[in-house]
Amino acid sequence: MTVNALPRGFCRDCLAPAETDAKRCRACGSPRVLRHPELDALSLAHIDCDAFYAAVEKRDNPELRDKPVIIGGGKRGVVSTACYIARINGVRSAMPMFKALEACPTAVVVKPDMEKYVRVGRQVRDMMQALTPMVEPISIDEAFLDLAGTRKLHGASPALVLARFARQVEQEVGITVSVGLSYCKFLAKVASDRDKPRGFSVIGQAEAVSFLAQQPVTLIWGVGKAFAATLAGDGLRSIGQLQTLERGELMRRYGTMGDRLYHLSRGLDERSVKPRSEAKSVSSETTFDTDLSRFEDLVPVLRALSERVSARLKKADIAGRTIVLKLKTADFRIRTRNRQLGDPTRLADRIFHTGLDMLRRETDGTRYRLLGIGVSDLTDAGKADPPDLVDQLSHKRALAEGAIDSLREKFGRQAVETGYTFGRGRAGRPPRED
């Protein structure tokens, strides 16, 4: 690049090239002109849907468009996400619902519809995979992408391809995304958070160290409030201060975390984008409107959650060997209990009865606000639930469960209920997860 050359750029709205230093696009007048000296050289991106759950609800209900919206599980739940209007009023994810409503009394609270969000998330994911096979999902609404080597395929630089993608999502899906473009995962994620919503931020290699030097230590993955306080006690509040210390000194002080501090403070991150890996667990949980302590009140909820987990395992054609019970007490303390089975399962009956035995041991008068059940150590379903020579009735129960699944698939989930949930109303049909 010559001394007087302009950084390469384009308009994010009409995608016309930005050939002058004008603040607005000469083709369409948009102020969303993107320029950066390394724009054509970078190919690693992080894409994050903006306030995803709330955005989907606003898309589906235009009356919510200009209102503060909180997605959460009722008064006793927590905030799953909030739109930007609600965030301006102090609402944050994971905030108890009562505090969120104190901060924003005019907010509209919408219970989460996970099935809908998963459908929209998959639609966006499919659009990502049309750009490159190198897509690494982080959650339902965000992923890393590596577009290296795709220029010939798309006839454009990765940056321009990502801008096209963002516009396509907005037009076809009806939500917005923010894009972070850099040379490594760490800084791509940092970039995507810089200019939300509808953002597109670039952090190049030449500016990385100087940019990071001005940032707080909490920008580094793994530096939460507690560790930040430890670093502050040692006089380290900015990443620039970390940059003055050698790797050996940081590791002597903070162990393996010191190694991370050394590398990330200098913008060194060699992790590659890894395409979607298999899920590590399948689970379902619910937060109660009022605390529950009696075993007989918890049983129908456990049964309904076990059926939900089983349905997901069967749909994905997988099974798991370890059953995990999760409980959250009234004072927000989490208890988890695990039990490994002799062979993998995907049957609601086995998941439920294993969880039931663990639950019985925990019903000691403690009041619980949340109950969950899950399956981990996942494997192919072909290895699941072999005939039990000891329990002769297990085969009959498995056949009965298969018949119930067929009826539910044909007539809906409420067509058939077990004795554990029948007639129990909401106790047998927990709300969607928080």
TrEMBL record:
Keywords: Cytoplasm, DNA damage, DNA repair, DNA replication, DNA-binding, DNA-directed DNA polymerase, Magnesium, Metal-binding, Mutator protein, Nucleotidyltransferase, Transferase
Cofactor(s) required for function per UniProt: Mg(2+)
Entry GO CC: cytosol
Cofactor note: Binds 2 magnesium ions per subunit.
Presence of keyword Heme: no
Record localization: Cytoplasm
GO biological process: DNA repair; DNA-templated DNA replication; error-prone translesion synthesis; SOS response
EC number: 2.7.7.7
Residues binding Mg(2+), per UniProt: 48, 141
Domain (UmuC) ranges: 44-224
UniProt cross-references to InterPro entries, sorted A to Z: DNA/RNA_pol_sf, DNA_pol_Y-fam_lit_finger_sf, DNA_pol_Y-fam_little_finger, DNA_polymerase-Y, DNApol_IV, Rev_trsase/Diguanyl_cyclase, UmuC
Subunit and interaction comment: Monomer.
Biological role stated in the UniProt entry: Poorly processive, error-prone DNA polymerase involved in untargeted mutagenesis. Copies undamaged DNA at stalled replication forks, which arise in vivo from mismatched or misaligned primer ends. These misaligned primers can be extended by PolIV. Exhibits no 3'-5' exonuclease (proofreading) activity. May be involved in translesional synthesis, in conjunction with the beta clamp from PolIII.
Family: Belongs to the DNA polymerase type-Y family.
UniProt-recorded name of the protein: DNA polymerase IV
